């Protein structure tokens, strides 16, 4: 790890600074990494997955505790929500915008991309802990059963009822079907109110004509989750992952443009190119010809995604692309252009799988240069490299996992950016 020794050292400092542990009022023990001490002090599902991947390279015991805390918050239904409030009720300043049924709720009622089973399998392998693997298989089978029961269509793909469930809150992918209700416009509160009155029950929202969509990133994580369950010993999970991959390609891949797009509430293709369309590259059994088209026609296109500091959250050719901060009134609108570091992980897996070693090395080296110049910021300008948003942002330590994967796959045979 000598090439990235400084990255590993500084990432450990961030992770340790953001570590929180204790017992809550219900006597549940927790230990997790908050993304940011002030801005995001709670445990976030999606972020914890990447914190655990980083911890697994530095201290597997912390990685296991991070994931066990997520599972400790699992609801009787099997749901593990987007945000868990270990330290008490949701802050009053967030109560109107978080997806909770009441102020005293222990956890939000919505999902994030279901990557947990994949990450659990990775951590179990690195820790060499069979008991931990068994824990994961039991809890995550319940979680996947919840998503199957409450969210899945006939082809097995799952739906979202708000853009923030995709992990990409203000993504321009859903601007057209949402219009005045898009995040974070004032109308977004009306969307939340509609969903809250239906207890964030996806089936009820769909039946009552509410917004819903089939998201590429969410379903890429869904496939990866089943791949993880297979590694944890769940019978039939490997075949399920293959079936879902087939559904993903059939339904969300556009053979004309060679890219993955979300599907809107009326089954329409939402032809907005965001980095979510690159996320399927992480899937083990994605057809090679599909991988090649996504990489060669889109990822490596210097006018779209292969910018000075790849990969932007929205293609630079999109009218909605904003490389720096984007605001509606005084509210930040995320995911409309800047580079977020955990997207690198999905894309790197695809490049390595296809043997694109020079491109993989370039991607990791350019990502590392962002951190070396600006620290572990929340997001970065893909044209200038300027760091923006929160500082000492825990989720950006996902770079540790990318650096380790690059070293394992490439060794010293690499192109220096």
Order of helices and strands: HEEEHHEHHHHHHHEEEEHEEHHEEH
Through-space gap between termini: 17 Å
The CATH architecture can be named as Alpha/alpha barrel
Number of helices: 14
What report would you give on this structure?
This protein is mostly helical. It has a single domain (2-410), classed as Glycosyltransferase, CATH 1.50.10.10. It has helices spanning 5-17, 45-58, 60-72, 116-127, 130-151, 175-178, 187-196, 202-207, 216-231, 237-252, 288-299, 343-353, 357-374, 398-410; strands at 19-23, 29-33, 43-44, 83-84, 253-254, 259-260, 262-263, 269-270, 327-328, 331-332, 379-380, 387-388. α2 packs parallel to α4 and α4 (116-127) packs antiparallel against α5 (130-151).
Task: Explain briefly what this protein structure is.
The chain has 417 residues and is mainly α. The chain contains 14 helices and 12 strands. It has one domain: Alpha/alpha barrel (Glycosyltransferase), CATH 1.50.10.10.
List keywords for this structure.
single chain; 417 residues; mainly alpha; Glycosyltransferase; two-stranded antiparallel sheet; two-stranded antiparallel ribbon; 12 strands
Helix/strand layout:
Layout: H1 5-17, E1 19-23, E2 29-33, E3 43-44, H2 45-58, H3 60-72, E4 83-84, H4 116-127, H5 130-151, H6 175-178, H7 187-196, H8 202-207, H9 216-231, H10 237-252, E5 253-254, E6 259-260, E7 262-263, E8 269-270, H11 288-299, E9 327-328, E10 331-332, H12 343-353, H13 357-374, E11 379-380, E12 387-388, H14 398-410
Helix pairs in contact: 1-2, 2-3, 2-4, 2-14, 3-4, 4-5, 4-9, 9-10, 12-13, 12-14, 13-14
């Amino acid at each position: 790890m000598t090439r990235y020794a400084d990255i590993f050292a500084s990432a450990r400092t961030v992770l340790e600074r953001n570590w929180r542990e204790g017992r809550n009022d219900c006597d549940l023990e927790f230990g997790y990494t908050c993304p940011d001490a002030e801005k995001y002090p709670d445990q976030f599902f999606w972020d914890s997955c990447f914190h655990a991947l980083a911890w697994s390279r530095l201290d597997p015991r912390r990685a296991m505790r991070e994931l066990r805390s997520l599972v400790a918050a699992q609801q009787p239904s099997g749901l593990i929500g987007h945000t868990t409030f270990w330290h008490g009720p949701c802050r009053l300043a967030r109560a109107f915008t978080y997806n909770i049924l009441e102020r005293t709720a222990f956890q939000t009622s919505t999902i994030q991309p279901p990557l947990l089973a994949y990450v659990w399998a990775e951590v179990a392998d690195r820790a060499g802990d069979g008991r931990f693997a068994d824990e994961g298989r039991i809890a995550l089978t319940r979680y996947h059963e919840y998503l199957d029961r409450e969210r899945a269509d006939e082809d097995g793909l799952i739906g979202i009822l708000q853009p923030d469930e995709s992990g990409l809150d203000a993504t321009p992918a859903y601007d057209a079907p949402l219009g005045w209700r898009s995040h974070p416009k004032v109308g977004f509160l009306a969307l939340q109110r509609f969903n809250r009155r239906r207890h964030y029950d996806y089936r009820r929202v769909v039946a009552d004509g509410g917004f819903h969509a089939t998201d590429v990133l969410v379903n890429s994580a869904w496939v990866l989750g089943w791949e993880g369950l297979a590694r944890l010993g769940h019978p039939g999970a490997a075949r399920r992952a293959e079936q879902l991959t087939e559904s993903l390609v059939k339904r969300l891949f556009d053979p004309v443009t060679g890219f993955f797009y979300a599907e809107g509430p009326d089954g329409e293709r939402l032809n907005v190119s965001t980095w979510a369309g690159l996320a399927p590259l992480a899937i083990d059994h994605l057809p090679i010809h599909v991988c090649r088209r996504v990489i060669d026609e889109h990822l490596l296109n210097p006018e779209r995604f292969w910018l000075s500091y790849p990969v932007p959250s929205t293609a630079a050719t999109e009218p909605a692309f904003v490389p720096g901060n984007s605001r509606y009134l005084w509210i930040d609108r995320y995911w409309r252009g800047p580079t977020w570091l955990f997207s690198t992980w999905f894309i790197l897996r695809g490049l390595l799988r296809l043997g694109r070693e020079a491109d993989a090395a370039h991607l990791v080296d350019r990502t590392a240069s962002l951190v070396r110049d600006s620290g572990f910021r929340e997001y970065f300008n893909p044209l200038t490299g300027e760091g923006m948003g929160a500082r000492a942002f825990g989720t950006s330590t996902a770079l540790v996992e990318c650096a380790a994967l690059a070293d394992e796959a490439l060794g010293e045979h690499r192109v220096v950016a």
